[in-house]
Amino acid sequence: MHSNLKTTLHIFVLCMLSEMSSSLTIILI
Hints:
This protein is mainly alpha-helical and 29 residues long. It is built from one helix and no strands. Helix content is 93%, strand content 0%.
């Protein structure tokens, strides 16, 4: 269960990073 939670958190962080980077790209361009 602990590792499952860790995986979910990891995916969530990755999604947030991708969203931030895409919005940053839009702002820069």
